[in-house]
Amino acid sequence: MRKTGLLAIIFTFVMLTTTSVFAADTIKVGVPLAATGAYAGSGDNYWKGIEMAINEINKGGGLLGKQLEVIRFDSQEFAPEVVMQGANYLCGKMKVASVHAGWAGWGQDIRAYGKYDAPFFCDDGAMPAVDVYKSDPEKYYNTYFITDTGGDQANSMFNMLTALPYEYPNKKIVIINTDDAWGMEVGDTLSKQFKKIGWKVAKRETVPYGINEWGPILTKIRRINPAIIHIEIPSSQEVITFFRQFIKQPTNSILSYGWSITPLEVLTTLGKDADGIVGEMPAGMPAPKAPNAKAQAWVDQYMNIYKHPVPAGSWIAYTSVMVWADAVKAVGDEYDFKAVNKHLKEAGYDGLQGKMKFGENNTLHAQPAAPIVHYQVQDGKLVALFTDPPLKPYGEYKFQMPRWIKK
Amino acid sequence: MFLEIIEVFTSGLINGSVYALMAVGLTLVYGVTKAFNFAYGSFYNLGGYFAWVLLIPLGVIGGYFSVFFMAIPFFFIVGYLLEKVLISPLRKYDDWEMKVMMLTLGLSLFMDFGYQAIFGPRIKSLPGIIEGTVQVGEVVLFQQDIVIFILSLSGMLCFWWILNNTRTGMAVQAVAQNPAGAQIVGIPKDFIFAATFAISTMMVGFGGILLCQKNFVDPMGSTDIMIKAWVITAFGGMGSIRGSLYAAFILGMLEAFVGWYFGMIHVQIATLTLLLVTLAIRPRGLMGRE
Amino acid sequence: MSLKRMILTLCGFYCVMGIMPLFFGGTDYIMNILIMILIWAVVASCWDVIMGFAGIFSFGQVAFYVIGAYASAILSVSMDIPPVFSIIMAGVITGLVGVLVGLPCLRLAGPYVALVTFAVHMTLVPFLRGPLGRAIGSGGSQGILTIPPIKLFGLAFSSDQLVPFFYLTFFLTIICTLVLVLMIKSYWGTAFLALKDSENFAASLGISAFKYKLMVFALTSFITGLFGALYAHYVGMLSTKMLSMDVFTILMIMMVIGGIGKYPGVVVGAVITVTLSQLLAPLGMYRPLIMGAIVVVLVLFLRDGIISPIIRLLSPLQRVVVEEE
Lengths: 407, 290, 325
What we know:
Number of strands of chain B: 2
CATH class of the largest domain in chain A: Alpha Beta
Strand content of chain B: under 5%
Distance between the termini of chain A: 81 Å
Number of helices of chain A: 13
Oligomer: heterotrimer
Mean pLDDT of chain A: 89
Distance between the termini of chain B: 43 Å
Radius of gyration of chain A: 22 Å
């Protein structure tokens, strides 16, 4: 019986030590993303961007003459010890040269990867994560936030909503957001901003995930008849069922979906029915026409490989790999983390949309080369109306009056 | 105000009919076989994927008509085999109820991630059975909600009637009350167990098809469905079909009115509080037998 | 299993565990796994004692684990109580919650107990995320990200120094394991055997099922809470993501693999499950799929878990060992 325990441990020992494969002439890149569970859809979006960048680098002869080797880790649903295990596995055991993630744990990840020095790119987009960084910038110097925080994005949404070429019939807004850090941050910021310019936040509701029957909320909305309804739920099911039930008896309201317009299913399911909804994407790629030929070529290539439009996260995840590769090339040694991080922080990178740079708190703030893009659904497709900053109309695309708004 | 209450009431009815549809299979199988099927939600999803495969990649002729037609034998056989192969071998042990729970939990894990492996992690949407809306006074309703309401109510009542008024139904009840006694008077106990399981699987498959076309096929959604069905059957009294029907509509109404008056965030706590209070007063649920 | 055998088995197991840091002290990744094995072995053992031994269909184990973790984190972050005390207080709080939950639900029938205890699990998510949770300092949806390390004798124990933390956990694990073993083999244990054989007869001898069940529930909740708290100070961050079904199923699988009610099988189950889960991790979504299949097969063909065939295989050997000593 004692042998049982012994056998089990020997089993553990043997298995754990033999799993690492040593290949000398590759550079290991860690990719901790959700491959299973509720966040697998978003994990897939980031993965496609990362995969594309890695393939592109490898096809072009690799980095410093070495091929890149991807090591994936399934962060599941971001339970604390899983996030930590991911960091220990990728940085501690596999000794990866950099870590490229998307949604990665909203603050837990910063602590987990802060123990190591390999550059860590994440898209937490939430203040709590930045707060962890701020608590000890020297320790967490290897963390890079590839999009702006929810608050900054909400400010941009506010600017866009007030800049729409549309006369609001009243000054009432309804805000519905999820009960996670992201939803609360956006909801709080928007209601603060709208109150400041004299609007009335007629209803602010925080909802849990998983709601498919919106009757009770829509009943109230119909009585309020607000000028704007803002929905901030980063999950496709809820926003689709909301739209279907809204449209059966609509109010004269601009429907602003914020980030919730971006999950792929929203447009593939609703198609042209969704025409008129506005929404945004941080560090996005303006569409349908990209801002320049290089970016357009990239978009075409993406569509070619994955057969669907570019979702949120893909482009910036692609770019984060490129930014890192650029820094490694400049430094000449992928394991000289001090120098790579210094370069990442200081040098900036010439991306598809122009020169970009990480700013305060190691965050890739919205900037002309990585703008927050505000879209409207037109003819079943995302059409960029504005880019921000500075907030300016994009191309020749025009705002269309949603069909449910009656004059 | 009055109009608002009518609208919220309608929402409650829709919720209730959806819940009734979710729960009916679970309450039936638990009432008769005492086996608690943890993979229940996965079979619900199986219904969704069954319809999706037939309608989208295969594009069967006849649309939903053929889907339902094919679903009857498919789910019956799946349920029957499941009982025969996985559940009935466990019945000979003392703690078989616990073993069944463990086994079905493993099965649900296997099925849920099987769906993800085959169909990918993203949600799928099905074409609607009927599109369009009806206006009743000031209230606008989806036609499909009316269909779901009628089907779930009539399905439940139909089963209730069969169980109480036909010979087969009474045999099933006899097995439920006293398996050994039922066998002595010549009721094929094992067959009744398997058949009940099969019928329950069929019902949940149907529920899955109907509700997935209303909402989505979500590979990760099965746990939520399972928990909802579990709460409803426990609240109504495990094994009581009438109880489940009441429970579904009571909880549906509660959800709509709490969501409307206090906010959606309080719905879950309100539901669970009601459940706990009910169980504290009536340990076997609303209509459960002692 | 006799007391001697049980203690011998556990002794052997923990002796081997105890020397592991000598080999892996430098590898964070493996140390992390070892610490999680120790923590989960105890949590799963408690569950096994509740389910397999006392016959209570409790599904609230993960909830108690999380309650312990949050209690200690809140106490030490918001009230500045030193972690050493907050961990013990968290254990006591969890024990009390256990009694509160146990009082109404231990009288219910099987699946109802499961549902009520699981309802506690389900209420925790909206509670911790909602305004009530934020009022007591749960940090809402973002969780608590700055839990201080345990300070003892001037040393700080946290995930930054894994070897000291391993031995701290190890020490606590051994104490709690001893408590569990003593309980199983004490008068309580005999009482439960009697209750299992014939509840009516046992009751006629004056053994109150309710009283003993409540006591077991309280004790295991206490230990679970304690280890939840330990976990909180170990990872230094908490979120409601801990309440996802993943942890729940993993613990359940440990029991199935180890054999329900076959203590200390569950300890071996913990080792195998954690190892397997780590080994299968590169397979992504096939990992839970394979785990699920394993559970189905084990329940069907190895109804007492993996431990009894191993015992049967090793029994000649074992007899020699036992006799020698």
